[in-house]
Amino acid sequence: FELSADLRELSLVEVEFRNDYEELAQQCKTFAKDLLAQARNSRELEVILNHTASDEHVDKRGLLEERMNLSRLKLAIKYNQKEFVSQSNCQQFLNTVWFGQMAGYRRKHTFKK
């Protein structure tokens, strides 16, 4: 996400290479979205969306709330990566995280909620 943003900035500074930088920035966005689309299960989505760039050791056995920091998703929002955030696997995973045990909640009639 940072690379895409850097390339967008460079396209404004180095006008003679604007088209090249914009194309590369778009390729970065597409790559991130396509990577998310390749996730085969919720565990892979969890790994992608919670990935941190830091070298900190993350306890994989920690509480669900601690593991679900969604740092990559937050970064995508920060850098306005709409394609990544709106990708269907991402949205499905977020529904699972947010509704969790209330899987049938969304299917209930509004009165019954």
Count of DSSP strands: 0
- How many domains would you count in the coordinates? 1
Report strand %: under 5%
Distance between the termini: 38 Å
Summarize the biggest pleated sheet. Answer: none
> Are there runs of 5+ residues with pLDDT below 50, and where?
none
Shape: elongated
Spatial extent as radius of gyration? 18 Å
Helix content: 55-70%
Mean pLDDT: 82
Task: Give the structural class.
Answer: mainly alpha
Helices, by number, come to 7
Order of helices and strands: HHHHHHH
Describe, in plain words, how this protein is organized in 3D.
- By secondary structure, the chain is mainly alpha-helical.
- The model has no long low-confidence stretch (mean pLDDT 82).
- The protein has one domain.
- It is elongated, with a radius of gyration of 18 Å.
- Helices cover 62% and strands 0% of the residues.
- The protein has 7 helices and no strands.
Please describe the structure with a list of short key phrases separated by commas or semicolons.
ion channel, store-operated calcium channel activity, 113 residues, single chain, mainly alpha, inositol 1,4,5 trisphosphate binding, 0% strand, transport
